[in-house]
Amino acid sequence: MVISSVEMERKSWTTRVEAKKKTIESVQGLVDGVIIPTERIVEVLERLIKPGDRVVLEGNNQKQASFLSKSLVQVDPKKVHDLHMIISSISRPEHLDIFEYGIARKIDFSYAGPQSLRIAQMIEDEKIELGDLHTYIELYGRLFVDLIPQVALVAADKADRYGNLYTGPNTEETPTLVEATAFRDGIVIVQVNEIVDELPRVDIPSSWVDFVVVADEPYELEPLFTRDPRHITDIQILQAMMIIRGIYEKHGVKSLNHGIGFNTAAVELLLPTYGESLGLKGKICTNWVLNPHPTLIPAIESGWVESVYCFGGELGMEKYIEARRDIFFTGKDGSLRSNRTLAQLAGQYAVDLFIGSTLQMDALGNSSTVTRGRVAGYGGAPNMGHNPGGRRHATDAWYNLKTSDDPLARGKKLVVQVAETFQEANKPVFVESLDAIHVKDQAKLRVAPVMIYGEDVTHIVTEEGIAYLYKSDSMAERREMIAAIAGVTPIGMEHNPKSTEKLREKGLIAMPEDLGIRRSDAKRSLLAAKNIDELVQWSGGLYNPPARFRSW
User: Fold this and answer.
1) Pfam families, from UniProt (predicted)?
2) How far is residue 512's CA from residue 510's CA, in Å, rounded to a whole number?
């Protein structure tokens, strides 16, 4: 059928921009240009957000659009209801309060650490409709495909009167959320700490922004990546020694990402001591993709680190970063430029190794942080914790994991899972079946929320030893290898001592003794810094830890 020119003229191709113009006109009597008066924010939100809208709310690992989330809770559910929320990290009570009040109905997210117990209960009580559990990159990607937001509620440090934004050290995911909304004629609302005449730098231009509101208090920042060395245990030090000797040195790992945890903090604090004794400076751990961990300070000061690209900032590290511009990515003003989306991509494709922890692992190495009664999600771990098929550049560490002589054979990214065999309350980490399968059915998910699939895991480290899974020839052998280092868990009790000895002889597993490590040497005296105060001293007084980490 041929469409006539008359019919073509009748069809409008600007319905979205026309709808946006009409919506913005509805608040003209309440705003001053692009500036929303602080006290009018709830009334403005009630006019700008329509029932059923898809709303992306900035809830990062650290930076929260806390003023906007508290304001959203106050809207009249008769005016604003059935929202489809997109929140990468569910971190604040009001992120879930809006579902209790009928303001929102459905959610897509990646991580819910602080609210993991509550959201699990709300799912069970059918008070919230769960779209999907995503990785960060996956969620960001869908913002440009089938989860395009009608409204974005985000946070920045400062704005000028035109709406240009300075996001400061904690840029995180703000540009991605804003771009997905602004360029499909959605409405972008930004809370800022202050409006100034001149910005230190422009991180997001005013043409991407519709409205700015000065918050009644600075947006919330959580020092999520700060680990006090006082709490690092001898077991974690033993694991860190095995990681350095049996993985980093063995494979020549130079580029890497560390997850959150005391076990990786221990690795960072052993580099200037144990790593130095092995003569590994310059040979391992030179280029990092991670938040500015305070426990990395001694390694930086000792000359181990060449570069650090960050997902976000970390409270108290601002002056240290500004003074170490050779290491970090900073603007002309000296402040950190972070970008969560680009850091996730770098962690996925550009690094040789990802190392993290888990709450549960089955006999084949599949793992998840989603357990019965706790829907924590998994954030970016699945993005970085897999072997990306699109990788084409070869490094020594990547190439070192090649196990075939086939001319088309490729190397493999190192994906390391670290776990003590038992959690708190004597719960075994190694189980026959993941709780994620139960949660899948309960939450009506089509796919079980597995964090990292066993097929991607190359190494598992426990207090018993290391399993070099990338060398396994079969599922049966893989299961034997995992059982050999799973301690007295149900999976570990399956191991046969004779089989374990054969696995050691073949180099498929390694106990500390096989790596030249004496268990009795795994003491806190090896740590380059044993408390927060010593980290401050290493930094020359530049690190300013949050009050709750001060013990002096």
Assistant:
1) Mal_decarbox_Al (PF16957)
2) 7
Among 99-103, 297-301, 401-405, 482-486, where is mean pLDDT lowest? 401-405
What is the arithmetic mean of pLDDT over 77-90? 97
Nearest to 65 by CA among 236, 215, 277: 215
Element (H, E) at 341: helix 340-345
Dihedral sign of CA atoms 341, 344, 345, 350 in order:
positive
Instruction: Choose among 349, 342, 419, 341: nearest CA to 384.
Output: 349
Sheet holding 353-357, edge to edge: 307-309, 287-289, 255-258, 353-357, 414-418, 459-461, 466-468, 509-510
Q: How many CB atoms lie within 10 A of CB 217?
A: 9
Backbone phi and psi for residue 534, each to the nearest 5 degrees, phi listed first: -70, -30
Question: Which residues have C-beta within 8 Å of that of residue 84, sequence separation ≥ 6?
Answer: 52, 53, 54, 55, 104, 105, 106, 107, 108, 131
Spatial separation of the C-alpha atoms in residues 320 and 297, rounded to whole Å: 9
pLDDT at residue 442, rounded to an integer: 80
pLDDT in tens, 169-179: 999 999 999 99
Tens of pLDDT, residue by residue over 513-533, are 999 999 999 999 999 999 999
d(CA 279, CA 420): 28
Report the DSSP beta bridge partners of residue 87: 109
Q: What does the angle CA 70 – CA 80 – CA 207 come to, to the nearest 5 degrees?
A: 70
Measured in whole angstroms, the distance separating CA 493 from the mean position of its chain's CA atoms is: 34
Strand, coil or helix: 203: coil
In Å, what is the CA distance from 237 to each residue of 242, 484, 522?
9, 20, 6
**Rounded Cα distance, 57 and 441, in Å:** 27
Report whether 546 contacts 223 (CB < 8 A).
yes
Rounded to whole angstroms, the Cα distance separating 488 from 430 reads: 9
Give the pair of three-digit tokens for residue 333.
Answer: 């003003």
DSSP 379: T
Please choose, from the candidates 241, 256, 187, the residue with its C-alpha nearest in 3D space to the C-alpha of residue 47.
187
> Could you report the per-residue pLDDT of 244-288, keeping only the tens digit for each?
999 999 999 999 999 888 999 999 999 999 999 999 999 999 999
Q: Which one-letter amino acid corresponds to residue 530?
A: K
pLDDT at 4: 63
Q: Which residue has the tokens 């559910």?
A: 77
Contact 270, 244 (CB under 8 A): yes
Question: Do residues 157 and 192 make contact, with C-beta atoms less than 8 angstroms apart?
Answer: yes
The pTM of the full predicted model, rounded to 2 decimals, is 0.93
pLDDT at 552 over 60: no
Radius of gyration of the CA atoms of the chain, in A: 25
Query: In three state form, how does the secondary structure of 457-481 look?
Result: CCEEECCCCEEEHHHCCCHHHHHHH
